[in-house]
Amino acid sequence: MLSIAGDGSAVNDGVRDPNETRKLGIYGRGYDGILQVTGRALRFERDQEIYGYGNDADQVFKVEAGVVRTYRFLRDGRRQVDCFRATGEVFGLELGGSYTLSAAAACDCTVIAYRRRSLEKLAANNEQLRLQLSSAALSSLARAQEHSLSLGRRNAAERVAMFLIECLEYSNSTTDIQLAMPRRDIADYLGLTMETVSRTFSHFAHDSLIELVGTRRVRLRDTAGLRALYV
Amino acid sequence: MLSIAGDGSAVNDGVRDPNETRKLGIYGRGYDGILQVTGRALRFERDQEIYGYGNDADQVFKVEAGVVRTYRFLRDGRRQVDCFRATGEVFGLELGGSYTLSAAAACDCTVIAYRRRSLEKLAANNEQLRLQLSSAALSSLARAQEHSLSLGRRNAAERVAMFLIECLEYSNSTTDIQLAMPRRDIADYLGLTMETVSRTFSHFAHDSLIELVGTRRVRLRDTAGLRALYV
DNA sequence: CGAAGCGTTGACGCGGATCAAAGGCAGTGG
DNA sequence: CCACTGCCTTTGATCCGCGTCAACGCTTCG
Question: 20 to 30 A Cα–Cα from B36, which one of A12, B8, B132, B153?
Answer without folding.
Answer: B8
